[in-house]
Specification:
- With 215 residues, the chain is of the alpha+beta class.
- The chain is built from seven helices and four strands, in the order ααααββββααα.
- The protein has a four-stranded antiparallel sheet, covered by helices on one side.
- α2 runs antiparallel to α5, α2 packs parallel to α7 and α5 runs antiparallel to α7.
- The relative contact order is 0.18.
Length: 215
């Protein structure tokens, strides 16, 4: 049996076993491990997109105008400078004979959501939240890839894929058919290993790329 013939046998076995590696019901939880972070990133992308379109529908203000705000400015001056806010809420509280009025307004500059709080007509605080922050999302993706994919998902996912190639056939009582085939044991092992390697690479690389694409 020449080396070339063994390579052809290995590849033939790998192609058959790829169906088990990709489509076996026992390997379904591997897809959950690989795609779980992608679901979170897609949900975050949808949420950010919906909020951004909602804010843009009410109009945006120049970023320079928002950056020029300082605490202590009068309420009328700020509203006149920035225009009508996308969100406006007022709360009045009475303490004895004194009444306190607080007002929260929100503006959007295309990437940031800025909330202003007025205390009795005077700007008291400026709270900025970035909606479209690729650097922050990339940092989150890096931590997920390091701690979830490399330390958990890939380890247990590969364990499930490779174990299912032999244990699954033992449970289905089909492994003996391979032993009846004119192929050496090491060729069978190499073919199954190649099938598991291809499946694990495609599944987890696809999950990571889907996360990156959603980001």
């Amino acid at each position: 049996m020449t080396a070339r013939f063994r390579i052809r046998q290995t590849w033939a076995i790998a192609r058959i076993e790829m169906r088990r590696a990709f489509f076996s019901k026992r390997a379904f939880w591997v897809y959950l491990l690989a795609l779980f972070p992608a679901v979170l990133f897609i949900g975050h992308a949808i949420e950010v997109g919906v909020r951004a379109r909602s804010y843009q529908g009410h109009g945006t203000v120049p970023a320079a105008a928002l950056d020029s705000l300082k605490e202590g400015l009068k309420e009328d001056e700020v509203i006149q400078r920035l225009g009508q806010p996308i969100e406006d809420r007022t709360l009045r509280r009475r303490h004895g004979d004194e009444e306190t009025r607080r007002r929260w307004v929100t503006y959007y500059d295309g990437s940031r959501r800025i909330s202003l709080r007025f205390e009795d007509g005077v700007l008291d605080s400026v709270n900025t939240r970035t909606l479209l922050n690729f650097e922050e999302d990339r940092s989150v993706f890096a931590r997920i890839f390091q701690f979830f994919y490399l330390r958990l998902a890939i380890f247990f996912g590969c364990l499930g894929i490779f174990m299912n190639l032999f244990r699954g056939e033992m449970l289905d009582k089909t492994l003996h058919f391979w032993f009846l085939a004119p192929a050496r044991r090491e060729v069978l092992l190499a073919g199954k290993y190649l099938a598991g390697l291809v499946a694990s690479t495609v599944i987890f690389t696809g999950g990571a790329m889907l996360c990156f694409g959603a980001m």
